[in-house]
Amino acid sequence: MVQEHIRLVNAIRTGNPINEADKLAYSTLIAIMGRESAYTGKFITWDEAMASTQKLSLDHYEFGPIPGFSEDIPLAGKPHEI
Fold first, then answer.
1. How many domains does the chain have?
2. Per the domain annotation, does 28 fall within a domain?
3. Rounded to the nearest 5 degrees, what angle is found at the Cα of 45, between the Cα atoms of 42 and 48?
4. pLDDT tens profile 42-53
5. Fewer Cβ in 10 A, N or C end of the chain?
6. pLDDT > 90 in the chain, percent
7. What is the rounded distance in angstroms from the CA atom of residue 39 to the CA atom of residue 52?
8. Residue 2 scores a pLDDT above 80
9. Main-chain phi, psi angles of 36, to 5 degrees
10. CA separation for the pair 7, 5 (Å, rounded)
11. Residue 11 lies in a domain
12. What per-residue string of b and e applies to 40-78 under the rule 16 or more CB within 10 Å gives b?
């Protein structure tokens, strides 16, 4: 962590920004591939992951009740019956 801060301060002082977007994108895709492999029990290739049309989000977003979730959500400090 100390070295990360040194690099950050040096980047700010010299005007050379640190861009780790590629590393973050690759690590995110690898995590998604691992999750899909664990859920399906199948080996997932990089090409299969990149060509996937799987959608894990809602069709549209709006305020209000979330489909599939109970309105009775336990909150810290409030009694909750099971």
1. 1
2. yes
3. 95
4. 999 999 999 999
5. C
6. 55
7. 15
8. yes
9. -65, -40
10. 5
11. yes
12. eeeebeeeeeeeeeeeeeeeeeeeeeeeeeeeeeeeeee
Dmax of the chain from CA atoms?
A: 58
Domain annotation covers residue 16: yes
Length of the chain, please? 82
pTM: 0.57
pLDDT of residue 77: 75
Is the C-alpha dihedral spanning 61, 66, 68, 74 positive or negative? Answer: positive
Range of the domain at 6: 2-51
Give the H/E segment covering residue 48: helix 46-51
pLDDT digits (tens, 9 = 90+) for 51-77: 999 888 878 888 887 777 766 666 777
